[in-house]
TrEMBL record:
InterPro entries: Flavoprotein-like_sf, FMN_Rdtase-like_dom, NAD(P)H-dep_reductase. This is NAD(P)H-dependent oxidoreductase. GO terms for molecular function: FMN binding; oxidoreductase activity. Coiled coil: none annotated. Gene3D superfamilies: 3.40.50.360. Residues 5-148 form the NADPH-dependent FMN reductase-like domain. It holds the Pfam family FMN_red. One of its GO terms (cellular component) is cytosol.
Length: 180
């Protein structure tokens, strides 16, 4: 099986800024021993319900998502900030992983991007708390908040800001080293 970095976007928008950030990460990893695979849409996951969180009743989309996380050599999670928090759809996806263990000791990097000058720092803090609770291994320096993201992504939907590209490259070096 090919090793990969699993990219999870906390936004459901087709052309979200967070998707653009993850596409930049994927472009950086093309041709390497650790390409990026985009996760199945977390929007397809049903609302978390402990009553169906059993081996027999777990919905197929949840099983597929869990398998992607389990099989990944590393994970990158990118979140927007909605009302000072991570989107409900991302929290829901992570809730499905609390008791199943796929994130335990998984090398993970995190990114938040926001049009605000705070870079989505409140959502990012919430994301980091949740990932730590489920056992993700986030290397020191393995998280960045990207402020004013709208000014860094062109009309073509691509990230053009050199400083942000360098920051993403640094994150990738950290998670790549941690995954071997």
């Amino acid at each position: 099986m090919e090793r990969y970095i699993l990219a999870i976007s906390g936004s459901l928008r087709a052309r979200s800024f967070n998707q653009s950030l993850l596409e930049a990460v994927a472009a950086m990893q093309q041709g390497t021993d650790l390409p990026v695979l985009f996760s199945t849409s977390i929007g397809e996951l049903p609302h978390f319900n402990p009553d169906i969180n059993t081996e027999q009743l777990t919905p197929a989309p949840v099983k597929a998502f869990r398998n992607q996380v389990q099989d990944a050599a590393a994970v990158v999670v990118c979140t927007p900030e909605y009302a000072f928090g991570m989107p409900g759809v991302l929290k829901n996806a992570l809730d499905w992983l609390v008791s199943s263990g796929e994130f335990t000791n998984k090398p993970t990097i995190t990114i938040s991007g926001s049009p605000l000058v705070t870079g989505g720092d409140k959502a990012h803090a919430s994301l980091l708390t949740t990932l730590k609770v489920i056992g993700a291994s986030i290397p020191e320096g393995g998280s960045i908040s990207i402020p004013a993201v709208t000014k860094k992504i062109g009309e073509d939907g691509r990230l053009h800001d050199a400083e942000t590209l360098e920051q993403l490259q640094s994150l990738l070096k950290l998670v790549t080293a941690a995954s071997f």
